[in-house]
Amino acid sequence: MTFSAVIVAAGSSTRAGPGAPKPWRSLGGRPILRWSVEALASAGAAEIVVVTASERIAGADEALAGLSGWRAVAGGATRAESVRAGLAALTCPADQPVLVHDAARPFVTVDHVEALLAALAGADGAVPVLPVADTLKRGVDTITETVSREELWRAQTPQAFRLGTLREAYAAWPADAEPTDDAAVVERVGGRVVMTPGDPMLMKLTYPEDFAMAERLQTRIVRIGQGLDAHRWGPGEAVWLCGVKIAHDAALIGHSDADAGLHALTDAILGAIGEGDIGEHFPPSDPQWKDASSDRFLSHAVGLVAAKGGRILNADVTLVCERPKIRPHRDAMRQRLAELMNLPLDRVSVKATTTEGMGFTGREEGLLAQAVVSIETPA
């Protein structure tokens, strides 16, 4: 089912202790905001609006580098104002489902989204909830009452509604009141909000100790991918290798720009995440890839990693050829690969070797490229 999403990331995070607001802090080496954007994009969100403080809109580009399908807008002084800003920025039809999510809950998954969308089919809203397990007390300093837990639930996000329903409900909400969540806004106008199973992993990061707990809860694995590509030499005046154009007395022959380095690296990434090979994604029989820049192939593979909630840790490319000499161009190649994969330079390696005149590379019939990558993804 097609849906859009609003991610609220405009709070000041005063309870979280010193440091940047919660969405911009690091969790598992990534900004907390990025976790939710990656997860909702992976779940199929057609449109994602990130609502943040106006002074942090520019910073969103850095935190979400390499991700597509999102845009940032300025929020308001309250959560309700920020949600309204996010809803106003959506361009989807009024009857399309919209998920409203707090960026401070980074562990949202595809399963959570699917359960909410299924429940919304027969309701005005859907909310993931957990039963209250602790005994509840009321009082200030001294307990004055023990409150029954019966029929009490802890509401989480994301919460699902149809765009028109939620916009109309917010329009009717009193200006002098602040709702604690979006379901309360729909409930007030008589909307039927149903419950879906909550998840302890959908914890909200509020206090300093929550961040330490979240670091311990992560379950991540490292995958290794290997890629290999070779192209014949033919007539030409330049060759593309690892995204860099090098003047030469021959060119590599291929359907695209025949950049064997980028092709091998793309295959290594696709292999690590179980997404086939470059020929499946960009078949040479398709005329649209004739003479295409191989930058596009690598960027596509990098995007697939991000959509799975993963990140590339490092990459190592080896070029096997007698000529051209790679060393004078190696730094430029590393820089270009680092840009395409959003990696620090020291996580990218480009090496070259020869076969001492042996084999097709030694006879200068062609060039061989080999690549290895390591990628961290959710287990």
Give an account of the 3D structure.
With 379 residues, this protein is an alpha/beta fold. It folds into two domains: 4-217, Spore Coat Polysaccharide Biosynthesis Protein SpsA, Chain A, CATH 3.90.550; 220-378, 2-C-methyl-D-erythritol 2,4-cyclodiphosphate synthase (60s Ribosomal Protein L30, Chain: A). It contains twelve helices and 19 strands. The protein has helices at 32-42, 57-63, 79-89, 110-120, 163-172, 182-188, 208-217, 260-272, 278-281, 295-307, 330-341, 359-362, and strands at 4-9, 26-27, 30-31, 47-52, 70-74, 97-102, 125-131, 136-140, 142-147, 153-155, 159-162, 193-197, 220-234, 238-241, 244-247, 251-253, 311-320, 348-353, 366-378. Strands 1, 4, 5, 6, 7, 10, 11 and 12 form an eight-stranded mixed β-sheet that branches. The protein has a five-stranded mixed β-sheet with strand order 16-13-19-17-18. Strands 2-3 form a two-stranded antiparallel sheet. The chain is elongated.
